[in-house]
From TrEMBL:
<dbReference type="InterPro" id="IPR036589">
    <property type="entry name" value="HCY_dom_sf"/>
</dbReference>
<feature type="binding site">
    <location>
        <position position="242"/>
    </location>
    <ligand>
        <name>Zn(2+)</name>
    </ligand>
</feature>
<dbReference type="GO" id="GO:0008168">
    <property type="term" value="F:methyltransferase activity"/>
</dbReference>
<protein>
    <submittedName>
        <fullName>Homocysteine methyltransferase</fullName>
    </submittedName>
</protein>
<dbReference type="GO" id="GO:0046872">
    <property type="term" value="F:metal ion binding"/>
</dbReference>
<feature type="binding site">
    <location>
        <position position="312"/>
    </location>
    <ligand>
        <name>Zn(2+)</name>
    </ligand>
</feature>
<dbReference type="Pfam" id="PF02574">
    <property type="entry name" value="S-methyl_trans"/>
</dbReference>
<keyword id="KW-0489">Methyltransferase</keyword>
<feature type="binding site">
    <location>
        <position position="311"/>
    </location>
    <ligand>
        <name>Zn(2+)</name>
    </ligand>
</feature>
<keyword id="KW-0808">Transferase</keyword>
<dbReference type="GO" id="GO:0032259">
    <property type="term" value="P:methylation"/>
</dbReference>
<feature type="domain" description="Hcy-binding">
    <location>
        <begin position="22"/>
        <end position="325"/>
    </location>
</feature>
<dbReference type="InterPro" id="IPR003726">
    <property type="entry name" value="HCY_dom"/>
</dbReference>
<keyword id="KW-0479">Metal-binding</keyword>
<keyword id="KW-0862">Zinc</keyword>
Length: 325
Protein backbone atom coordinates (compact mmCIF):
# COMPACT_ATOMS: atom_id res chain seq x y z
CA UNK A 1 0.00 0.00 0.00
CA UNK A 2 2.90 2.35 0.65
CA UNK A 3 5.68 3.54 -1.61
CA UNK A 4 8.42 5.96 -0.69
CA UNK A 5 8.83 9.21 -2.65
CA UNK A 6 12.09 10.79 -3.52
CA UNK A 7 13.41 12.96 -0.71
CA UNK A 8 12.69 16.55 -1.69
CA UNK A 9 13.72 20.05 -0.76
CA UNK A 10 14.31 21.71 2.57
CA UNK A 11 12.17 24.07 4.61
CA UNK A 12 13.16 26.74 7.10
CA UNK A 13 16.02 26.05 9.47
CA UNK A 14 15.05 25.11 13.01
CA UNK A 15 17.58 25.08 15.83
CA UNK A 16 17.13 21.96 17.95
CA UNK A 17 20.56 21.79 19.52
CA UNK A 18 19.14 22.34 23.01
CA UNK A 19 17.32 19.59 24.88
CA UNK A 20 13.57 20.19 24.63
CA UNK A 21 11.53 19.30 27.70
CA UNK A 22 7.79 18.72 28.00
CA UNK A 23 6.06 20.01 31.11
CA UNK A 24 5.54 17.35 33.77
CA UNK A 25 1.95 16.32 34.39
CA UNK A 26 0.85 15.42 37.88
CA UNK A 27 -2.57 14.26 36.69
CA UNK A 28 -2.85 10.58 35.90
CA UNK A 29 -5.95 9.45 33.98
CA UNK A 30 -8.04 6.76 35.65
CA UNK A 31 -8.68 5.25 32.23
CA UNK A 32 -8.90 6.31 28.58
CA UNK A 33 -10.85 9.53 28.14
CA UNK A 34 -10.50 10.33 24.44
CA UNK A 35 -12.01 8.49 21.48
CA UNK A 36 -10.23 9.02 18.19
CA UNK A 37 -10.87 7.48 14.79
CA UNK A 38 -9.78 4.28 13.09
CA UNK A 39 -7.93 3.45 9.89
CA UNK A 40 -9.11 6.29 7.69
CA UNK A 41 -7.23 5.32 4.56
CA UNK A 42 -8.00 1.58 4.62
CA UNK A 43 -11.65 2.36 5.40
CA UNK A 44 -11.89 4.70 2.42
CA UNK A 45 -10.12 2.31 0.05
CA UNK A 46 -11.79 -0.97 0.97
CA UNK A 47 -15.21 0.13 2.24
CA UNK A 48 -15.87 3.15 0.02
CA UNK A 49 -14.02 2.04 -3.11
CA UNK A 50 -11.81 5.11 -3.31
CA UNK A 51 -8.45 5.22 -5.05
CA UNK A 52 -5.96 6.95 -2.77
CA UNK A 53 -2.63 7.30 -4.61
CA UNK A 54 0.23 7.24 -2.13
CA UNK A 55 -2.23 6.29 0.62
CA UNK A 56 -3.15 9.99 0.84
CA UNK A 57 -6.58 11.08 2.09
CA UNK A 58 -6.01 14.83 2.06
CA UNK A 59 -7.15 15.26 -1.61
CA UNK A 60 -10.72 14.70 -0.37
CA UNK A 61 -10.55 18.22 1.09
CA UNK A 62 -10.55 19.63 -2.44
CA UNK A 63 -14.11 18.60 -3.34
CA UNK A 64 -17.58 19.00 -1.85
CA UNK A 65 -18.20 15.25 -2.05
CA UNK A 66 -14.86 14.52 -0.42
CA UNK A 67 -15.53 16.87 2.47
CA UNK A 68 -18.98 15.35 2.93
CA UNK A 69 -17.45 11.88 3.08
CA UNK A 70 -14.91 13.00 5.67
CA UNK A 71 -17.64 14.67 7.72
CA UNK A 72 -19.72 11.47 7.72
CA UNK A 73 -16.64 9.48 8.67
CA UNK A 74 -15.86 11.65 11.70
CA UNK A 75 -19.53 11.68 12.71
CA UNK A 76 -19.35 7.93 13.31
CA UNK A 77 -16.65 8.42 15.91
CA UNK A 78 -18.52 11.29 17.54
CA UNK A 79 -21.40 8.86 18.10
CA UNK A 80 -19.00 6.34 19.66
CA UNK A 81 -17.65 9.00 22.02
CA UNK A 82 -21.20 9.91 23.04
CA UNK A 83 -22.13 6.28 23.73
CA UNK A 84 -18.92 5.74 25.68
CA UNK A 85 -19.35 8.93 27.70
CA UNK A 86 -15.90 9.97 26.50
CA UNK A 87 -14.33 13.00 24.87
CA UNK A 88 -13.61 13.24 21.15
CA UNK A 89 -10.21 13.78 19.52
CA UNK A 90 -10.60 14.78 15.87
CA UNK A 91 -7.43 14.42 13.79
CA UNK A 92 -6.83 15.86 10.33
CA UNK A 93 -6.62 13.56 7.26
CA UNK A 94 -3.09 14.73 6.56
CA UNK A 95 -0.82 11.76 7.29
CA UNK A 96 0.62 12.19 3.78
CA UNK A 97 0.47 16.01 3.60
CA UNK A 98 4.17 16.71 4.12
CA UNK A 99 6.39 18.27 1.42
CA UNK A 100 7.89 15.12 -0.17
CA UNK A 101 4.57 13.31 -0.42
CA UNK A 102 2.59 16.31 -1.66
CA UNK A 103 5.12 16.95 -4.43
CA UNK A 104 5.34 13.25 -5.34
CA UNK A 105 1.56 13.26 -5.82
CA UNK A 106 1.62 16.20 -8.22
CA UNK A 107 1.38 19.16 -5.85
CA UNK A 108 3.87 21.87 -5.05
CA UNK A 109 5.57 22.82 -1.83
CA UNK A 110 3.28 25.87 -1.73
CA UNK A 111 0.34 23.46 -1.58
CA UNK A 112 1.58 22.04 1.74
CA UNK A 113 0.59 25.20 3.60
CA UNK A 114 -2.81 25.41 1.90
CA UNK A 115 -3.69 21.74 2.42
CA UNK A 116 -2.87 21.71 6.10
CA UNK A 117 -4.58 25.01 6.86
CA UNK A 118 -7.67 23.76 5.01
CA UNK A 119 -7.65 20.55 7.03
CA UNK A 120 -7.59 22.50 10.29
CA UNK A 121 -10.42 24.79 9.19
CA UNK A 122 -12.50 21.81 8.06
CA UNK A 123 -12.16 20.11 11.45
CA UNK A 124 -13.06 23.29 13.30
CA UNK A 125 -16.21 23.60 11.21
CA UNK A 126 -17.20 20.02 12.05
CA UNK A 127 -17.45 20.60 15.78
CA UNK A 128 -20.70 22.55 15.59
CA UNK A 129 -22.10 20.09 13.02
CA UNK A 130 -21.32 17.01 15.13
CA UNK A 131 -22.65 18.43 18.41
CA UNK A 132 -20.70 16.00 20.62
CA UNK A 133 -21.77 15.75 24.25
CA UNK A 134 -18.22 15.70 25.67
CA UNK A 135 -15.14 17.80 25.17
CA UNK A 136 -13.55 18.05 21.72
CA UNK A 137 -9.91 18.53 20.82
CA UNK A 138 -8.52 19.06 17.33
CA UNK A 139 -5.13 17.74 16.31
CA UNK A 140 -3.04 18.04 13.18
CA UNK A 141 -1.77 14.71 11.88
CA UNK A 142 1.86 14.39 10.81
CA UNK A 143 3.17 11.34 8.99
CA UNK A 144 6.74 10.16 8.50
CA UNK A 145 8.88 11.67 5.78
CA UNK A 146 9.34 8.20 4.35
CA UNK A 147 7.11 5.18 3.99
CA UNK A 148 5.99 4.41 7.52
CA UNK A 149 6.36 0.65 7.21
CA UNK A 150 10.14 0.64 6.75
CA UNK A 151 12.91 2.76 8.25
CA UNK A 152 13.79 5.37 5.67
CA UNK A 153 16.99 7.18 4.86
CA UNK A 154 18.82 8.25 7.99
CA UNK A 155 18.82 11.93 8.86
CA UNK A 156 19.63 14.01 11.91
CA UNK A 157 17.04 15.35 14.33
CA UNK A 158 17.87 18.86 13.12
CA UNK A 159 17.19 17.87 9.51
CA UNK A 160 13.88 16.28 10.44
CA UNK A 161 12.87 19.36 12.46
CA UNK A 162 13.70 21.61 9.52
CA UNK A 163 11.68 19.38 7.20
CA UNK A 164 8.51 18.94 9.30
CA UNK A 165 8.30 22.53 10.50
CA UNK A 166 6.46 23.61 7.32
CA UNK A 167 3.49 21.34 7.98
CA UNK A 168 3.42 22.04 11.72
CA UNK A 169 3.50 25.81 11.13
CA UNK A 170 0.57 25.48 8.71
CA UNK A 171 -1.48 23.71 11.37
CA UNK A 172 -0.74 26.50 13.83
CA UNK A 173 -1.70 29.09 11.22
CA UNK A 174 -4.97 27.21 10.77
CA UNK A 175 -5.73 27.52 14.47
CA UNK A 176 -4.61 24.15 15.84
CA UNK A 177 -2.77 24.00 19.15
CA UNK A 178 -1.94 20.29 19.04
CA UNK A 179 -0.28 17.93 16.57
CA UNK A 180 0.47 14.21 16.59
CA UNK A 181 3.02 12.41 14.44
CA UNK A 182 2.10 8.82 13.60
CA UNK A 183 3.87 5.72 12.30
CA UNK A 184 7.37 6.96 13.04
CA UNK A 185 10.14 4.44 12.44
CA UNK A 186 13.18 6.17 13.92
CA UNK A 187 13.98 8.17 17.05
CA UNK A 188 15.73 11.09 15.28
CA UNK A 189 12.55 11.87 13.33
CA UNK A 190 10.52 11.87 16.56
CA UNK A 191 13.03 14.19 18.24
CA UNK A 192 12.99 16.51 15.25
CA UNK A 193 9.19 16.71 15.19
CA UNK A 194 8.97 17.47 18.91
CA UNK A 195 11.61 20.15 18.55
CA UNK A 196 9.86 21.74 15.56
CA UNK A 197 6.54 21.73 17.43
CA UNK A 198 8.14 23.45 20.41
CA UNK A 199 9.62 26.04 18.04
CA UNK A 200 6.19 26.69 16.49
CA UNK A 201 4.47 26.69 19.88
CA UNK A 202 2.05 23.75 19.71
CA UNK A 203 1.62 20.68 21.91
CA UNK A 204 2.95 17.49 20.37
CA UNK A 205 2.46 13.76 20.58
CA UNK A 206 4.60 11.17 18.81
CA UNK A 207 3.65 7.62 17.90
CA UNK A 208 6.13 4.92 16.97
CA UNK A 209 5.12 1.86 15.01
CA UNK A 210 6.57 -1.57 15.76
CA UNK A 211 7.10 -4.84 13.96
CA UNK A 212 5.75 -8.19 15.17
CA UNK A 213 8.69 -8.44 17.60
CA UNK A 214 7.79 -5.17 19.32
CA UNK A 215 10.78 -3.28 17.88
CA UNK A 216 10.78 -0.21 15.65
CA UNK A 217 11.35 -0.99 11.96
CA UNK A 218 15.00 0.04 12.36
CA UNK A 219 15.45 -2.52 15.16
CA UNK A 220 15.36 -0.11 18.12
CA UNK A 221 13.51 -1.37 21.18
CA UNK A 222 10.63 0.71 22.50
CA UNK A 223 12.48 1.01 25.81
CA UNK A 224 15.56 2.49 24.12
CA UNK A 225 13.42 4.71 21.88
CA UNK A 226 11.58 6.19 24.85
CA UNK A 227 14.80 6.75 26.79
CA UNK A 228 16.49 8.55 23.88
CA UNK A 229 13.40 10.60 23.11
CA UNK A 230 12.97 11.81 26.69
CA UNK A 231 16.68 12.60 26.95
CA UNK A 232 16.45 14.94 23.97
CA UNK A 233 12.92 16.18 23.31
CA UNK A 234 10.21 14.85 25.61
CA UNK A 235 6.77 15.01 23.95
CA UNK A 236 3.42 15.87 25.55
CA UNK A 237 2.01 12.53 24.42
CA UNK A 238 3.61 9.16 23.65
CA UNK A 239 1.66 6.74 21.49
CA UNK A 240 2.06 3.51 19.53
CA UNK A 241 0.18 2.89 16.30
CA UNK A 242 -0.10 0.64 13.24
CA UNK A 243 0.55 -2.64 15.07
CA UNK A 244 -1.63 -5.32 16.61
CA UNK A 245 -1.81 -5.22 20.43
CA UNK A 246 0.01 -8.56 20.58
CA UNK A 247 2.95 -7.05 18.68
CA UNK A 248 3.21 -4.13 21.09
CA UNK A 249 2.99 -6.52 24.04
CA UNK A 250 6.14 -8.25 22.75
CA UNK A 251 8.06 -5.13 23.79
CA UNK A 252 6.80 -5.10 27.37
CA UNK A 253 8.73 -6.41 30.34
CA UNK A 254 7.54 -6.29 33.96
CA UNK A 255 10.10 -3.64 34.93
CA UNK A 256 9.74 -1.41 31.85
CA UNK A 257 9.38 2.21 32.92
CA UNK A 258 8.47 3.37 29.41
CA UNK A 259 5.04 1.74 29.71
CA UNK A 260 4.04 4.45 32.21
CA UNK A 261 4.71 7.08 29.52
CA UNK A 262 2.30 5.65 26.93
CA UNK A 263 -0.73 7.93 26.54
CA UNK A 264 -2.31 6.52 23.39
CA UNK A 265 -2.91 3.42 21.28
CA UNK A 266 -4.11 3.28 17.69
CA UNK A 267 -3.82 -0.40 16.86
CA UNK A 268 -4.22 -2.54 13.76
CA UNK A 269 -6.96 -5.14 13.59
CA UNK A 270 -4.69 -7.60 11.78
CA UNK A 271 -1.91 -9.70 13.28
CA UNK A 272 -0.05 -9.53 9.95
CA UNK A 273 3.38 -7.96 9.67
CA UNK A 274 3.90 -4.65 7.88
CA UNK A 275 5.38 -6.51 4.91
CA UNK A 276 2.32 -8.75 4.67
CA UNK A 277 -0.06 -5.80 4.96
CA UNK A 278 1.85 -3.90 2.30
CA UNK A 279 1.47 -6.78 -0.15
CA UNK A 280 -2.18 -7.50 0.68
CA UNK A 281 -4.79 -7.01 -2.03
CA UNK A 282 -7.68 -7.68 0.35
CA UNK A 283 -8.34 -6.05 3.68
CA UNK A 284 -7.58 -8.11 6.77
CA UNK A 285 -10.12 -6.81 9.31
CA UNK A 286 -8.80 -9.18 11.98
CA UNK A 287 -10.74 -11.04 14.62
CA UNK A 288 -12.79 -8.55 16.63
CA UNK A 289 -12.91 -10.64 19.82
CA UNK A 290 -9.16 -11.24 19.64
CA UNK A 291 -8.53 -7.53 19.09
CA UNK A 292 -10.60 -6.52 22.11
CA UNK A 293 -9.07 -9.17 24.38
CA UNK A 294 -5.47 -8.40 23.47
CA UNK A 295 -6.11 -4.65 23.64
CA UNK A 296 -7.59 -4.98 27.14
CA UNK A 297 -4.59 -7.04 28.26
CA UNK A 298 -2.19 -4.44 26.86
CA UNK A 299 -4.14 -1.47 28.23
CA UNK A 300 -4.03 -2.94 31.73
CA UNK A 301 -0.24 -2.55 31.63
CA UNK A 302 -0.32 1.11 30.49
CA UNK A 303 -1.37 3.21 33.50
CA UNK A 304 -1.51 6.56 31.63
CA UNK A 305 -3.41 5.35 28.56
CA UNK A 306 -5.72 8.21 27.60
CA UNK A 307 -6.41 8.04 23.83
CA UNK A 308 -7.84 4.95 22.12
CA UNK A 309 -8.53 4.56 18.42
CA UNK A 310 -7.58 2.33 15.51
CA UNK A 311 -5.22 2.16 12.57
CA UNK A 312 -4.96 0.00 9.43
CA UNK A 313 -7.88 -2.37 8.92
CA UNK A 314 -10.04 -0.80 11.62
CA UNK A 315 -13.23 1.20 11.25
CA UNK A 316 -15.96 2.45 13.57
CA UNK A 317 -16.97 -1.12 14.47
CA UNK A 318 -13.52 -1.89 15.84
CA UNK A 319 -13.17 1.35 17.78
CA UNK A 320 -16.67 0.94 19.25
CA UNK A 321 -15.73 -2.56 20.40
CA UNK A 322 -12.50 -1.29 21.98
CA UNK A 323 -14.64 1.16 23.98
CA UNK A 324 -17.21 -1.51 24.86
CA UNK A 325 -20.08 0.22 23.09
Amino acid sequence: MHSEPQQGGRSEMTDVDAVVRAPDSATEPSGPRWVTDGGLETDLIFHHGLDLPGFAAYPLLDSTDGRALLSAYYAGYARIADRAGANLLLETPTWRANPDWVTSLGGSRDDVRRINIDSAVHLAGLVEFLEPSGEVELSGTIGPRGDGYVAGERATANEFAEYHRMQIAAFAEGGLERITAYTLTTVPEAIGIVSAARNVGVRVGVAFTVETDGRLPDGTTLADAAEELWANAAPDGFLINCAHPSHIAEALRDDDSWAARVTGLRVNASRQSHAELDAAEELDEGDLDDLVTTHEQLAARLPRLDVVGGCCGTDARHVAALWGV
